[in-house]
Amino acid sequence: MKIRIAVVEDDREISSILKELLEISGYECVQAFDGDEASKLLSRESFDMVLMDLMLPYKNGERLIAEIRENGETPVIVISAKSMMETKLEVLRLGADDYIIKPFDLDEVLVRIEVVLRRSGAFSAKPVLEAGELSLNTEENRLTVGGKQVQLTAKELMLLKLFLEHPKKVYTKAELYETVWNEQYFYEDNTINVHVSNLRSKLKKASGKDHIETVWGIGYRLKGYEQ
Predict the structure, then answer these.
(1) Which backbone phi and psi does 11 adopt, to 5 degrees?
(2) Residue 188, H or E segment
(3) Structural domain boundaries enclosing 160
């Protein structure tokens, strides 16, 4: 089952950009274009996250966050042109999990989403991640490829888990490094190349096929899941 994200944004161009970004990354996305519409949507459907603007018609973002918090713990990330520190702090006090300032970087939005979802436990709700003949049991850290068990290092397991969580996504080296190593990535660092190469070799040895491909100038993704 896909992770479901509600995008609440009255600017239809920005909403479309976010929807396309999320769907390419393997999420299910449902849009709402004003506060009232969002309120009705969130009352009748369940989501793993709400991605929302503050300046919404009919019902502003602050009121919407308060409603969400009255009814549960659904993670909320605010994306807003309001850059005042006081606004950001107040929104976080209301219960938002993160705050991104417009104009935003698409890669940063994806990383922030993944961090908040991981913290909320949304990913761990899927104990077995599968793509083709790859099957990763995340509770036992056990990988099978075409029925054969394959031993991976801790970092290789974390990298593969990211690829399996979003099979269609192209991960940049910076995203992979900063998510797995939790440190700032430097361009000349060869760590990612080495670990991805080792992971790719182990998967190919088990199945005779390539499962990870290089997208030149961008990064890596699972092979065979292009849009």
Answers:
(1) -80, 110
(2) none
(3) 126-222
pLDDT digits (tens, 9 = 90+) for 136-186: 988 788 999 988 899 999 999 999 998 988 887 888 888 898 888 888 887
Distance CA 193, CA 15 (A): 34
9 and 119 in a single domain? The answer is yes
Conformation bin of residue 214: beta by default, left when phi > 0, alpha when psi is -120 to 50 = beta
Q: Are strands 76-80 and 98-101 parallel, antiparallel or unpaired?
A: parallel
Instruction: Say yes or no: 114 and 143 in one domain.
Output: no
- What pLDDT score does 165 carry? 82
Residue pair 38/59 in contact by the 8 Å Cβ criterion: yes
**Cβ atoms of residues 44 and 86 within 8 Å:** no
